[in-house]
Amino acid sequence: MFVKLRTRVFGTLTGRLTLTYTVLSGCLFILVILFLYWILLEMVYSRYDDIIHVYASEVKKVYMREGLEATDRMLKQDDDVTQTESGFIQLVDMKGNIISTSDISEWQDFRFDAERLSGLKETSPRFATITRGENKPAVRLYLEKISSDIAIVIVAALPDDMEVINYFAEVGLIAAGILLFGGALIGWFVARRAVIGIKEVTRTAMSIEEGKLDARVSTRSQPEEIRQLADTFNKMIERISQLIDEVREVTNVIAHDLRSPLTRIRGNAEVTLRGNASLEDYRVTTEKVIEECDRLEGMINTMLEIAAVGAGIHDGDNQCIDLRQVVEDALDLFEPLADAKKQTLFLSRSENLPSVFGNKAVLQRSIANLLDNAIKYTPESGKIEIILERSVDHIRLVFQDSGIGIPQSDLARVFQPFFRCDRSRHLPGNGLGLSYVETVIKNLGGVINVSCPDTGGTRFEIRLPHSDTA
Questions:
Q1: Which residues contact 135 (CB under 8 A, 6 or more apart)?
Q2: Longest Cα–Cα distance in the chain
Q3: Is the pLDDT of residue 372 over 80?
Q4: Could you give the 3-state DSSP secondary structure of residue 135?
Q5: Summary mean pLDDT of the chain
Q6: What is the mean pLDDT of residues 1-16?
Q7: What is the pTM of this model?
Q8: What residue numbers bound the domain in which 305 lies?
């Protein structure tokens, strides 16, 4: 049970934040109390040590000038120096034997440890604090070697200030305990407030897991960090929803595009089988079946190629490509098709174009797709212009035709797989060409945009990083 309680409390972020806040605040408060206690002790010791040092200097001065006997008389007669209740002064040999002493009648129970004299040097007096048990004040011990075999021992009871200091330390420790408890409550409250946004994200994620894809995290009254997390989460869910919608749409289109040729194949076969078909009828039906199979195979191969390019499978064959040469080769290839429709192909290019880095085969196919579309959707005697020029960090390739154009409402969808405008449905195609082109351009680190100028036609603009910046 204790393990479960510990897991429920300290296994949560709230519990851990509370524990961390409590421990840190408690340790900080205790350190402050200890530091203040040490400062006060040092102040008392410093002040008292100065007084003791003055007494020691007077005794040493008499001993050095007048000898041991004069010093002995001083210790026994000078009450200002040797107050019996406050302490006593002694001259001892280096084994701790008393040579001369002031009145110690009030200090009969005090025992001085002679081991403290070991290693004592004339130039290095020592201070120490000695406790005497309950109901007796602590004392300050002073040791100073004044000759080769004699040392001064001064024992002075510490003043009442020490009681105040010790009381301060006790009160401080009690206050530290209270602070730990109060800090835990405050830390728990602050931690719960801090994780409200995280809990909101968790609840939203659980709702999405249940299939509620329209659920979103509220960003009102949230701290900046949680708001950024919520915004990122909402954008991710929005993108996932869009991808799901696109997958559904693509799935529907695929199902339709696959069902249509299969339906035609089945229809042709059924008609041939049910009638009194001749050998020629079987030959014609077989040709239609092969044609539909070729169309299906082409569509499937294009889909596989799009997936391969998007996954970077062809990146191992990347090389520096002369884009000008690729465009000119495509123009030479499609020029007969353009001539058949009396169309004009015009190329405008800059000199000394840098190369681009990528797979030459897929780039050639992309340019061929764009040029084929321009010729296909441009009426007879139309004009197709290709612009190839260099900018600071990329090469700009533009295909501009005077064809049927694309409705503004469809521009955002032309790169979606299987999408075809109503204007183009009567022409051959499967709606995968532009999706393939976009995948290739993105794989090369470039961008492609489509627009329909007011003058008519369609304009595709590609920006590819050249080899100097790729």
A1: none
A2: 154
A3: yes
A4: coil
A5: 78
A6: 53
A7: 0.49
A8: 224-310
